[in-house]
Please model this.
Amino acid sequence: MVATNLCPIIILRYSLFLQTYIRICWAFILNASSEKKAAALTAHLADHAPRTWQRMLSGRRLNLLDPSPMDIEIEDIALGLARNTRWNGQTQGVHAWSVAQHSDFVVDIVRRLQPKATPDILMAAKLHDASEYVTHDLITPLKAVVGDVFKEVENRLLQAIRLRFGLAAVLPASTEALVKNADKIAAATEAVQLAGFSVVEARTVLGFREKPLSDVKLIPVPAAEAEKAFLDGFHTLEAAVTLQKR
Model:
């Protein structure tokens, strides 16, 4: 009789435990301060877009409000980033400087800053702008105008992408800082070499404290070439990340 009476209590406690666990995981992945905030953001995003999914050439259908890692393919990312331009396409040369080339450039800079960087750190650098295969590379002034809705969509996509390729949804602070520093160095270099800014303007107008690299020459390449280079580099890093985890 006692055992029978305890069953509902055990089930209730297990149910409460499971619900709490799910809530904690969800809040962590979305990096939301509370369930209420996450729910409000989801509703806000839904109000802005009646259709919230995009079909990729791989056949995957990616939900922008609730992106699943299982709907993300590196081939879709490589294609999108290779055809997506930095600086709104306002760069010198016959071909545009793509987000794919920028991503590879950031990986190279991370290697300079931290020669012993582990494969997972390099992969984080490789994928730091991967969400832009869906959102595109909005210039900084436009991001400020669009506001929190865009940032939330971008953040959710990026976390799903990281999970898809074996990284933590939220990067360690040290990795985030390293990649961000490399990203700014890359942007400062691009500004001077490709986007028509002087070294002084890169600092005074764009606000970069980081110095542009002077020992590299940035050469925009055709989209197909940038796509292949991005994929080749990704597969090399993917194999290294797999070995790192063993």
Summary: The first helix runs from residue 2 to 30. The mean pLDDT is 86. Residues 82 and 224 are 7 Å apart (CA to CA).
